[in-house]
Known about the structure:
About 70% of the residues lie in helices and about 0% in strands. The N and C termini lie far apart (about 70 Å). It has helices at about 25-35, 35-60, 65-75, 85-150, 155-160. By secondary structure, it is mainly α. It is rod-shaped, with a radius of gyration of 31 Å. The chain has a domain at about 25-135: Helix Hairpins, CATH 1.10.287.
Amino acid sequence: MARPRKEKEPATDAAAGEPDEYVTLSMSELKKDSSAATVALGLVFGYLALGVAFYSQNTDWSVLECFYFVVVTLSSVGFGDLTPQTDAMRLFTGAYILVTLTLTLTLTLTLTLTLTLTLTLTLTLTLTLILTLTRWAWASSVRRSERSSPAYSTPTTRRRRAG
């Protein structure tokens, strides 16, 4: 994801020495960048399906039992009711667990980053709106108080008020 930059700050590509394109943080940019979370989620589910397919081809378990084994193993519950019987299957299972943990960690970090950026942008926009409305209300009250002060009134308005 491209890091948001201030609009007046030019960025340069160190290798080429050319200025980069300015990137402003907006909801549309976050929606574009959420594709990384979608890819990570797809990898995790695809990898689960790969495990189910592998175990269903190399064991006498049903597809449901393979899915059950993959979920129980990867969630670190490990009931032990289904176990790989050969050394090759045990090695595959160990490697499968390590790769899946890496994918799951990547997914978690990507989703956390996307959620954090979305919440930060939402909070920033909300605070900006509140500050803008507060400034507008304050300016309106100052203008009203200036109009009602004697220094603001003209001799004509003073006569109208007095009479």
